[in-house]
Structures are given as structure tokens and as C-alpha cells.
Write a structure and sequence with these properties.
The complex is a heterodimer of chains A (590) and B (190). With 590 residues, chain A is mainly alpha-helical. Chain A is 62% helix and 5% strand. Classes of the chains: A mainly alpha (590), B mainly alpha (190). Chains A and B meet through helix 1, helix 2, helix 3, helix 6 and helix 7 of A and helix 1, strand 2, helix 3, strand 3 and strand 4 of B.
């Protein structure tokens, strides 16, 4: 660990702190339909969208109608993506003449992009045409992010409004989110990325003549090994930057290329890497301010932010420490950090990022439900790889996915005030709303669905041959691989311990089911709470009200998250990464 | 519900045209005008032939060239099949591979520990860089093979070493392809 490394982490958190308020205020104005500086350009576009789609912008919806509209929209866009994937051979922008996807993969990918998971069982560069990438995948990056954000706005409205059953209009919120929040940043951001070297073109792949041809052993389909001389390199191209920016800003995480943000064409420089990490946390962090602003308690917004920042810092410290310490099983190597190299565990990491930016990126991408990776999580040290795993298990509420992080932390806020209420023996209140039995039950339901999906699928997979045969790293690491797959799917993260061979019937099906459960069965109970809260009266604050601002509340919230996560997952973790860590230090390999 | 379904269909169509088609086309147009070299992958030409991209690594293994890191992309540095090894830290396959590479490296530079990045596979399989330590490790071999003084090679390495971006971000690094191209023009192999 180096002073520069700590400085890079500190600088990152500082920049996130700086963008929180401006973005939070801006989003409040957008969703409250107040004036913004972009109105002269965007208002006509907005009206056009309403006219073409037949949307009545004055109408407000109850939570149930809002949920139905959201489900219908998700269903239609998912079907369209499936259709594009199945017909890309005949569609334009396909210079590599890539064929249609087979049904299983097309369905799994459609489910995965609709749920903002972006779990990928394919290599983008050899599977998806440019048309599928932009009109199918990049489009879903926009809309699944927008859906997440507007749902968090519904939750905030549920808290802020009183004695009403109206929570806004799904179509209006989504349109405004797309046009005001996502589009402007993506227009500027993609050009910033291109200026750093992210490619953006529609050219066929470039064939180059290698400076030094080399020979390699190739095993043919008949099992025979032949020697081949490689004289050329085919460089994959594409409209990458325009997708890269929304991939991070919408915490989607699905890479244009298989190597995701480790690929030099997706993430060419340390600055592009820093910028991408800022994009990932920007909206989730800004939403905490929106929460405070809309509910009239900015101090509550900052208390939530502080709880998140503490958990973030704990995670990144652990990952950085474990990765910098390296892998003692690799004898004869120099793993000490110096001015000439970053040392540490460099398997599955890029030199330009080194240890600190790989550890930081892995923490950021799993705190948020992003899932983009700039290093191979499967090759992290046991404890370094446990950090991303735990981050997702905690529900991705440390800033979290766009919107998903905020409605996720809302569950823990409800639990925290409930626990505090039990301790002082009063009906818990949250920002003037009584938290009653129905609300706590729904919050617990959301927690249990997450837990149940992860643990039950993993438990089946580790005892059945169709589960274990996909393991590629034997020993305790195999359990980690399976656990990570279901945690990532259920949490709609999309990063992976990617060695696990998930392109099988069992994994394709169960991970898709886990993604759908993790997305929609999390959303519905939370919307029910929001709908219920909106109907309630405001209870005036009294001396007995437990304050939801300040250090005490931030501490209670952080502890609630950690305790729920630890109680649920510690046994599984102790048999996976923790055991592997002990065995590695004892010099044992598998 | 029926009304919302109709809206969903039209809304999907309208937004797909806006965000799925017009947006990437607009960005591509702007990118091609503002940053044509970067938007097309920073291709390098030598003798009117495209020989690579400045930011995509190549599999150098000849003794007269600076070697790149091991790669798990296809048969090695294959940009149509990017990715890492996905081997876990306690996997014997990983340990065997590293041990073999360490022995190979130490044969040419005995009794020195090998900088870790030189014997570990990158995440993309296309890492264009090695650390300055890994370049330094290879200098004696290059000097021997190309019949030049080590100090000359070292000066060339220094010229192609990039510091941290803005002196703060990332890690110092040496671009292997550019370094080898420079070697070829200053000290050609016989």
C-alpha cells in the first residue's frame, strides 16, 4: 500500500462528495417538474415524446398502476431486445456478419439487460452486431437505469407526500429522467471518453500485420494438437464510447467487449478509469441529497450518505490491503510495491491501473449494482475477492445502483428505525410517518427474497453435479464461484467470478430466474410500502421521536446493514473465501 | 392497463429511435470529426502497413524484443476474444504457469526475482503495458541480442515510460509495442 494509493482513493471519495449536492438538487428539480437551464432545448422534445406515445402528462398514478406501467414497459423492451438478438443477421450495422443468437442465450441476455444486471454469458466482440449493441443493449442501459431511478423517486414521494394515493406518472418520470438526467451527461461523457481513447466507429474489425509473428499450439475439434503460426491480429471495433458512458452512469455494467472495462478500448487510461468510477457513484450519491431535499431534511440525506461512505471505505481498505499483500504461493516473483511497479497480486489486473485502482474499481462496481469490471474478480486474493461478494450480499446499498441503491437502503432505514423503536418502546417514526406492521413486514420480505434466492440456488448448485461440474477453480474457491454467481444475479450486479462456466442449461435458467426475482420481487414490496406511507398523516415531531439525522442514526443504519448481512451470509463466507485465505497462508493449493 | 400497454409499445419505439439509433450516430459523427485517431483505435502504420494499435498489446516472445505479459485472450493477445485467465489464487494451474514463466525469465536474468506483472496474465489479455520494473528486468537480454550498450536501451525505455497521469492517477507504465517499434528503428535486429 502506498501514499499515492491512499491519495487516489481519497481523491475519488472527495469528488463523489462534490457532485452529490449539485446533482441531487438538479434531480429534485427535474422530478418536481420545476424549471431547469435545459428546458429550452428539452421541453419541446419531451412534448414530442408525449404526443407520439399518447401520454397524458397531467395524470398521476396510484402505486399499483405505476407498478403495472413499469412492468409493461419492462416486458415490451425485453421482448424487443429478444427480437433484435434473434434477427441481427438481417439487420443493418453488422460488418462482421455475426449470426443470430440462439433462443436460450437471447432470452437470458434480454432478462439480464432488462433487470439492469447485464450478466453476460457471451463475448460481445464475437456475438453481438453493432446494431444489437446500440439499439438493443445500449438502449436497455438507458431505460433500465431510468426505471430504477424513477422507482426511487416514487419511494421518496411516498415519504414526502401525505394523505394521498397519487405517486406521479411513470411515463412522465421516465421521459424526464432519460432526457434531463441521463442524456446530457452521456453526450458530454462519451466525448470525454473518446478523447482518452475509447473507440467510437462503425468500421469492420481491423486486421493488422504483427511485428513479430509467433507460433502457438492449437487443439482441434478432433483433439489433436497442431502448431500454428499467427501473423495477424484482428482488432475488434465498434460504437463503444456511446455505450460505455451509460454503462457506468446507469450502473449497468455490461461490457461492449468480453473484458469489459479492462479492455483498452473501453477504458484506455487511468483518467478514463477515474472518470468511469465517478460516473458509477454519481447518481446514487446524488439521490441521497434528493432524498433529503424532497423530504425536507437534508441532514437525513447526509446521514444516509455518511453511513454509505463508512461502509465504502471499509470495503476498499480491505480489498486494497489484501491485493497489495499479494499471493505468497507465487514463488520467485517480486510483489513489493516500489516506484517501478505496483507489486501485489497482478494476476487479472492491468498495469495502467495497478493494485489500487483495481481494488477501488471492484469495490465501487459492487457497492453500486454496476458490475463493470477492470480486473478479474475470480483471480483476486481470497479476501480481496470477498469484498465485492460481501458488497453485493449487503444488498448493494452502499450508494448502490441508480435508484436501486436508494430504495434498497430505504428497506434498511425502515428496519433501523424499527429496531430503534423497539429499544425505546415507541411506535417507530420516519420523517413524520408512523412505521407500522405492514411496512416492516414488506421491508423484511424484500430482505428475505434476496437472501432466500442466493442461498437456496447456491445450496442446490453445490450438491448437484450440474452445479459443481461448472467449477473451474477447485477447493474452497469453487464455493465462492457459485456463491458469487447467484449473489451477483440476485443483486442485479452482473460481475462474476467469471471462471465458472455459466453457459449451461442449469446456470442460464437459474441465474435468469434469480435476476428477475431480485429485481421485481424487491421492487414490488418496496412500492407497496411507498404507496402505504403516502396515505398516512404527518405526525409532528416530539421529544420521543428517534432522530434520523446525525452520527447516531448513521451508525445505527450502518450497523443494521452489517448485522443483517453478517447473520445471513457469514456461514457461507467462512467456508468459501475465509477458508481459502487460511489455506493459502498455510501454503496449500488445489 | 390496455391503455398503458399501448403507451408502452409506442414509448419503446420512440425511445429506441432516439437513444438506440440517433444518439450513437450523433456521438460517432462528433467523435469522428473531433478525435478521428482516437475514435478509430489509434492505429500505427509502418511502411504503409497497419502494424497494430497503440493501446492494444501484442504477443512479443522473440529474444530481441521486450516481452509482453502472458495473455489469456484466445491464443494470446487476440482482440476478438478478450479476457483474463480467471484462475483463482490457490489454483495449481495458475501456480504451475507462473513457476514455468519465472524459470524461463530467470534463465536469462539469474538470481533476480521477477517483477510480478511480467509473469501474470492481465485482465483484458490485451494489456499494452508492462511496468518499468519489468522493462528494466529485460534490458540485459535486449542489449545482448541487439548488440548495444545497456545504457542505450535504458535511455530508450525511459523515453517510452509514461508517468502517472497528471502525476497522480494510475501507475507508471511502458508501452511494449511502441518501445519495440522504436528499438527496431534505432537498433534493427540482424
Amino acid at each position: 500500500m502506498t501514499a499515492n494509493g491512499w491519495f487516489q482513493i481519497g481523491l475519488y471519495l472527495f469528488v463523489i462528495f462534490l457532485v452529490t449536492k449539485p446533482l441531487g438538487v438538479f434531480m429534485t428539480r427535474v422530478f418536481n417538474r420545476e424549471k431547469t437551464f435545459l428546458d429550452p432545448i428539452l421541453r419541446p422534445v419531451e412534448k414530442l415524446v408525449y404526443r407520439l406515445s399518447g401520454i397524458d402528462e397531467k395524470r398521476e398514478m396510484r402505486w399499483t398502476e405505476y407498478a403495472v406501467a413499469m412492468l409493461l414497459f419492462s416486458g415490451v423492451t425485453m421482448a424487443l431486445l429478444y427480437l433484435i438478438e434473434r434477427t441481427q443477421k438481417w439487420l443493418p450495422f453488422n460488418p462482421q456478419k455475426l449470426g443470430n443468437l440462439e433462443p436460450g442465450l437471447a432470452f437470458g441476455t434480454a432478462a439480464s439487460f432488462t433487470t439492469n444486471t447485464n450478466w453476460q454469458a457471451y463475448s460481445g466482440e464475437s456475438t453481438m452486431s453493432y446494431f444489437t449493441q446500440m439499439a438493443g443493449l445500449a438502449y436497455h442501459n438507458f431505460v433500465s437505469a431510468a426505471v430504477g431511478i424513477v422507482l426511487s423517486i416514487v419511494v421518496i414521494r411516498g415519504i414526502a407526500r401525505k394523505e394521498t394515493d397519487k405517486l406521479g406518472n411513470f411515463w412522465v418520470d421516465t421521459t424526464r429522467c432519460l432526457l434531463w438526467v441521463l442524456l446530457p451527461v452521456c453526450l458530454v461523457g462519451s466525448l470525454i471518453l473518446v478523447s482518452e481513447g475509447v473507440v467510437e466507429n462503425f468500421k469492420p474489425y481491423t486486421t493488422v500485420d504483427l511485428i513479430q509473428p509467433y507460433t502457438t499450439q492449437v487443439t482441434g475439434p478432433d483433439g489433436k494438437t497442431t502448431t500454428q503460426t499467427v501473423t495477424q491480429q484482428v482488432i475488434a471495433q465498434g460504437p463503444v464510447a456511446s455505450q460505455e458512458v451509460i454503462k457506468e452512469f446507469g450502473t449497468n455494467g455490461g461490457g461492449f467487449f468480453n473484458a469489459n472495462s479492462a479492455h483498452p478500448f473501453e477504458n484506455p487510461t487511468p483518467f478514463s478509469n477515474f472518470f468511469e468510477m465517478v460516473l458509477i457513484f454519481a447518481i446514487p450519491s446524488g439521490l441521497t441529497y434528493t432524498l433529503g431535499w424532497m423530504t425536507g431534511s437534508q441532514r437525513h440525506g447526509w446521514a444516509v450518505w455518511a453511513a454509505m461512505a463508512v461502509l465504502f471505505f471499509a470495503g476498499v481498505t480491505t480489498a486494497y490491503w489484501a491485493e497489495a499483500k499479494g499471493n505468497r504461493l507465487l514463488a520467485g516473483t517480486d510483489q513489493g510495491a516500489s516506484g517501478l511497479h505496483s507489486g501485489g497480486n497482478m494476476e487479472g489486473k492491468e498495469v495502467r491501473f495497478g493494485i489500487v485502482n483495481s481494488a477501488l474499481f471492484s469495490t465501487v462496481t459492487t457497492d453500486a449494482s454496476c458490475g463493470a469490471v477492470n480486473g478479474i474478480h475470480d483471480s483476486f486474493t481470497p479476501l480481496g475477492g470477498m469484498v465485492p461478494l460481501i458488497n453485493i450480499m449487503l444488498g448493494e446499498v452502499v450508494f448502490g445502483g441508480v435508484g436501486a441503491g436508494l430504495y434498497g437502503i430505504f428497506v434498511f432505514v425502515v428496519l433501523a428505525v424499527f429496531i430503534a423503536g423497539l429499544m425505546v418502546g415507541r411506535t417507530p417514526e420516519y420523517l413524520g410517518k408512523k412505521i407500522e406492521s405492514h411496512d416492516v413486514k414488506m421491508a423484511m420480505l424484500a430482505v428475505l427474497i434476496l437472501t432466500f434466492t442466493i442461498l437456496v440456488f447456491s445450496a442446490i448448485a453445490v450438491v448437484k453435479p450440474y452445479g459443481t461440474s461448472s467449477i473451474t477453480n477447485p477447493g474452497p474457491h469453487g464455493l465462492s464461484q457459485i456463491l458469487y454467481a447467484y449473489t451477483s444475479s440476485t443483486g442485479n450486479n452482473g460481475s462474476a467470478f467469471a471462471g465458472l462456466n455459466v453457459n449451461t442449461m442449469w446456470y442460464n435458467t437459474t441465474t435468469a430466474v434469480a435476476q428477475l426475482l431480485g429485481r421485481f420481487f424487491m421492487i414490488i414490496p418496496i412500492m407497496a410500502v411507498a404507496g402505504n406511507l403516502a396515505k398516512k398523516k404527518i405526525v409532528p415531531e416530539s421529544a420521543g421521536t428517534f432522530p434520523v439525522t446525525g452520527g447516531l442514526f448513521a451508525g445505527l443504519l450502518a450497523s443494521t446493514i452489517v448485522i443483517v448481512g453478517a447473520l445471513t451470509f457469514f456461514p457461507a463466507l467462512s467456508l468459501g473465501p475465509i477458508l481459502e485465505h487460511l489455506l493459502m497462508n498455510a501454503g496449500k493449493a488445489f | 392497463m390496455k391503455k398503458d400497454l399501448l403507451i408502452a409499445l409506442w414509448f419503446t419505439l420512440v425511445t429506441t429511435v432516439m437513444f438506440g439509433i440517433l444518439y450513437p450516430l450523433a456521438i460517432t459523427g462528433l467523435a469522428q470529426v473531433l478525435f478521428p485517431d482516437r475514435a478509430n483505435g489509434q492505429l500505427i502504420e509502418r511502411n504503409r502497413k497497419v502494424v497494430g494499435s497503440r493501446i492494444i498489446g501484442q504477443a512479443f516472445s522473440g529474444p530481441g524484443y521486450f516481452h509482453s505479459r502472458p495473455s489469456s485472450a484466445g491464443t494470446g493477445y487476440d482482440p476478438t476474444s478478450s479476457g483474463g485467465s480467471n484462475l483463482g489464487p490457490t489454483n495449481k494451474t495458475l501456480l504451475d504457469r507462473v513457476t514455468a514463466d519465472v524459470q524461463k525469465a530467470q534463465a536469462e536474468n539469474p538470481s533476480t526475482t521477477v517483477p510480478i506483472d511480467l509473469v501474470t496474465a492481465s485482465a483484458s489479455g490485451l494489456d499494452p503495458d508492462i511496468s518499468p520494473a519489468s522493462a528494466e528486468f529485460q534490458i540485459p537480454r535486449i542489449a545482448r541480442e541487439r548488440h548495444v550498450a545497456e545504457s542505450g536501451v535504458r535511455a530508450l525505455v525511459a523515453r517510452y515510460t509514461q508517468p502517472r497521469q497528471f502525476r497522480i492517477l494510475g501507475e507508471p507504465r511502458v508501452n511494449v509495442l511502441q518501445l519495440n517499434l522504436a528499438l527496431d528503428s534505432s537498433n534493427p535486429l540482424y
